Amino acid sequence: MFEWLSDPNAWASLLTLTALEIVLGIDNIIFISIMANRLPEHQRAKARQFGLALALISRLALLASIAWIVKLTDPIFTLFDMGISVRDMILFFGGLFLLYKGTAEIHHTMEGGAEDGGPSRTVATFSGVIMQIMVLDIVFSLDSVITAVGMATQLPVMITAVVIAVAVMLFAAGPTSRFVQNHPTVKMLALSFLILVGVALIADGLHFHIPKGYLYFAIAFSVAVEMLNLAAAKRRRRKEAQAGH
Length: 245
Hints:
mainly alpha, two-stranded antiparallel ribbon
């Protein structure tokens, strides 16, 4: 089982795959953070931990079923001369779910929800949030595991990479959640990113592949611009405070 530890190629695969798994987990972290922030303060950390635990369990379960995973890419019927597989359907409907959630959250944020106690108020329950996280975990896990199967040939390497990636996600989920919650414009960017990912998943399900690198670059550029805006606003407030004295 541990023979791969003495194989340099296995270590190279592990490092590369871990980096890819962490990048692929960004959208998962953002979704979990946004959904957890709908809950009362004392339940948010627990929801994030539950969500990431489910992500790890689903990834490991899928890795343990590699033969079944490979069959998911086999067409089961044809639509408009296009072979549709189980994977295609999961990605398509997962993308639709992300589009719905991203749009609903933007509406909730713009119109005012539970925080404002307005007429559009919706009460998020812990079980409801966990169920939604579980649904998207399956979609993100499928994408992650198929990447792992394509990148590495040894199951222990895949499992190690996935565990490390989820551990990093667990460490980053708290700060990410607090940062998104404290900066409404960043939250809007994150929701826009989820909509972009939803569109990419739908396109992937229809055999139109959009490289995720393009999506990550777009959101990274937007976040970098927003960081400059936040820094400029902080500097402006500091100057105003000094002028007031």
